[in-house]
Write a structure and sequence with these properties.
five-stranded antiparallel β-sheet; binds adenosine-5'-diphosphate; Beta-Lactamase; binds magnesium ion; 3 domains; Heat Shock Protein 90
């Protein structure tokens, strides 16, 4: 029939900027323009008279044949992949229309290369995915920060409540007792009684003074500034043993350090928190605090031989409310440029270690 399309039709297709071909109802190529041979890298002699399905990706051939079958209902645009002789694929858009020459179905196909478009789409999708990931990560960190600051506020509030309660209970009661003693002194003039009351007031004042000393020391160890880390720790450990019945060994060795006050305060707090953890969680009554100093570094270790735990468990899982103690110690150590590590295992005791290099000036780091 159409020993292809007639002459004018061929001229039209050849003049097209797009690749184009005509097919019989079963997909045999009747004619193709030079753009199509360039696109497929096949000579027209190789293409003409053979089924176009041959150069369509094998998994899409069925769909292509179905598409041909649907053309009676109108033109169709559909994406397929052309398979080159080197087995590479290139995505194309087929725009197919039934020309129905002399009542016989003849399909005209315009083939548009959409590789660039696909690449752009993919690149867009990838970068969108990338930004989405960044965004989610950012949100997660924000959430974590919010959780942390809520925790810090809560702990701060608890600490204030504790301080106010202790001051109220201890000092308040002592002052009330002193007041009572003084009132009875005013009305009762017996010398023996006066002496007894004065003594009692004196005792109460001493008790209040002791309390203020210990308590203010707990809140901020001024001794650190006056006497240094080791004496401050010795004093803390003495009080700690007295209050808890624990036995703590303090081993200090090496040359006097050059740690600054921020660093000393952090090391002091880490000892406080670690010993409190030994008391609360380890199930043992003994611990050792070791400090090794050199001109260039300080290593601090708090070791117990209690029941131990899995330090991985208290890391940053948001579901488990992480103990603020371990988190706080880690964060404080980071602030002074120290390395913090917890070595522990169920049944194997716990070792908290801080290593601090003393290089040049060291002040609290901002971030
Ligand atoms: N010395 C220790 N021995 C056994 N378990 C410990 C020890 N120190 C910490 N832990 C475990 O690590 C958890 C986290 O400690 P921490 O962050 O200080 O929180 P908290 O003391 O408020 O529970 C504790 O709940 C405990 O299970
Ligand atoms: Mg704790």
């Amino acid at each position: 029939m159409l020993k292809g399309a007639d002459h004018s039709y061929r001229v039209l297709l050849e003049g097209l900027n797009e690749a184009a071909l005509t097919l019989t109802a079963d997909g045999t190529i009747l004619y193709c323009n030079s753009r199509f041979t360039e696109m497929t890298k096949l000579a027209s002699a190789q293409l003409l008279g053979s089924p176009v399905q041959r150069i369509i990706k094998s998994t899409e051939r069925k769909l292509f044949e179905m598409t041909l079958g649907q053309l009676a209902e109108g033109p169709i645009r559909r994406e397929f992949n052309l398979q080159a002789t080197d087995r590479s694929f290139s995505p194309v858009l087929f725009s197919i229309k039934n020309l129905g020459l002399e009542g016989i179905p003849v399909y005209c196909v315009v083939v548009t290369d959409i590789a660039d478009q696909k690449r752009t789409e993919e690149a867009l999708q990838k970068s969108e995915l990338h930004y989405r990931k960044l965004f989610l990560e950012e949100q997660r960190i924000q959430g974590e920060l919010r959780r942390l600051s809520r925790e810090i506020l809560r702990v701060q509030e608890e600490e204030r409540a504790r301080i106010s309660r202790e001051i109220h209970d201890e000092i308040g009661q002592t002052l009330t007792a002193i007041g009572l003693n003084l009132r009875t002194l005013k009305s009762n003039g017996k010398p023996s009684e006066i002496k007894r009351k004065v003594q009692s007031v004196q005792d109460l004042l001493e008790k209040a003074s002791d309390f203020i000393h210990v308590f203010s020391h707990q809140i901020h160890p001024s001794m650190l500034e006056d006497l240094g880390l080791i004496p401050a720790l010795r004093s803390f450990i003495r009080d700690f043993e007295k209050n808890t019945g624990m036995r703590i060994q303090l081993k200090a060795s090496g040359t006097p350090g050059r740690a600054d006050i921020d660093q000393k305060a952090v090391l002091y707090r880490i000892v406080q928190e670690s010993l409190t953890n030994v008391l609360k969680h380890s199930g043992t009554q003994k611990a050792t605090v070791t400090i090794r100093k050199s001109p260039h570094a300080i290593t601090l270790e708090i070791v117990d031989e209690g029941k131990g735990f899995d330090p991985g468990d208290v890391s940053v899982t948001p579901e488990k409310r992480q103990g603020l103690g371990v988190l706080g110690m880690r964060e404080r150590a980071r602030l002074i440029g120290g390395k913090f590590k917890i070595l522990s295992q169920p049944g194997k005791g716990t070792r908290v270690r801080v290593h601090l290099s003393l290089g040049g000036t060291t002040t609290l780091k901002e971030s």
